[in-house]
Amino acid sequence: MQETAPPVSEQPATEDPVHEKTVHEKPVHEKPVNEKTVHGQTVDDQTRCVHYRTERDIVAIRFFCCGRFYPCFQCHAAAETHPARQWPADRWAEHAILCGACGHTLSIAEYREADRCTRCSAAFNDGCRAHAHLYFDVPEALA
Ligand SMILES: [Zn+2]
Ligand SMILES: [Zn+2]
Ligand SMILES: [Zn+2]
Fold it and tell me: The whole model's pTM is what?
């Protein structure tokens, strides 16, 4: 069965087809998910920052709100105009933790279990746990 052809439009074409906008089918490249650039006030290339720079401060955290890695919540606050948002527990499979020693990324769930990098065994700062609620939506009992 053939569709009935629509009647020829009597309206004058409003657009010269020659000048039609060409739509380039280029995929929009947002920031790649695995982008490991660490933003903020870093003081070395192992993610230490002006706020946290002990030997063990070697993780950067990708923030749920903007998807950028920052060494700490203070760096995020200084560089961004939006409030930091915490990762909901159902997103803890995301690799939001970057080991500054080897560049490996850990999932939040892995990081919450580990006291060192799962790849290079560099020790993480245990003190970070006290601030977990700034990055992750931690139930009070586990905070
Ligand atoms: Zn953010
Ligand atoms: Zn910082
Ligand atoms: Zn590592």
Answer: 0.74
